[in-house]
Specification:
Elements lengths: L5 E5 L6 H15 L2 E8 L2 H4 L9 H22 L6 E5 L2 H11 L4 E6 L11 H7 L5 E6 L2
Parallel strand pairs: 1-2, 1-4, 2-3, 4-5
Helix pairs in contact: 4-5
This protein binds adenosine monophosphate.
Length: 143
């Protein structure tokens, strides 16, 4: 019997994402688990404190579209079909917590920068995901 049936790999869209994806793919194959690929687009208004008197809807839509295209490219490369590619809007930690429940995920895979000091061993998103997720969390050290 395998320990994990459904894994969620959360990626930012930086050049570091392939490192996280590659390990998640290996883990999912080793466990014969389904792999769900997730990117959370942060609301554009957050970056400006909601103070800009401008309609940011179009910009938000463009960010979502670019994220879907990027996920589709990764999905094709790794054999993850459209039904398992999710782009959502919100705070990464909260959205990942929500999706873990909604999708009945039993392992979340995130990247970790191994920061020291205040942020201790985990990067901020990885830390936020760990605290509040009921299932197991695998932190991939970003090199
Ligand atoms: P950070 O703490 O922001 O350096 O990010 C560490 C890890 O959190 C990344 O390698 C991803 O696994 C995950 N992550 C960060 N931002 C996002 C995002 N917007 N959507 C999905 N996952 C994310």
């Amino acid at each position: 019997m395998s320990a994990y049936k459904k894994m969620l790999v959360a990626i930012d869209l930086t050049e570091e994402a392939p490192q996280v994806l590659e390990k998640a793919k290996i883990m999912s194959e080793a466990h014969g688990a389904n792999l769900v690929l997730v990117h959370v687009v942060e609301p554009v208004g957050y970056a400006y404190g909601g103070d800009i008197p401008m309609d940011l809807t179009e910009l938000q839509e463009q960010l979502g579209k670019a994220a879907r295209e990027q996920l589709a490219a990764y999905g094709e490369r790794l054999g993850i079909d459209k039904a398992h590619q999710i782009v959502t809007v919100g705070r990464p930690e909260s959205e990942i917590h929500r999706l873990v429940k909604e999708q009945a995920v039993d392992l979340v895979v995130v990247g970790s920068h191994g920061r020291k000091g205040f942020q201790l061993l985990l990067g901020s998103t990885a830390n936020g995901v760990l605290h509040g997720t009921e299932c197991d969390v695998l932190a991939i050290r970003i090199r």
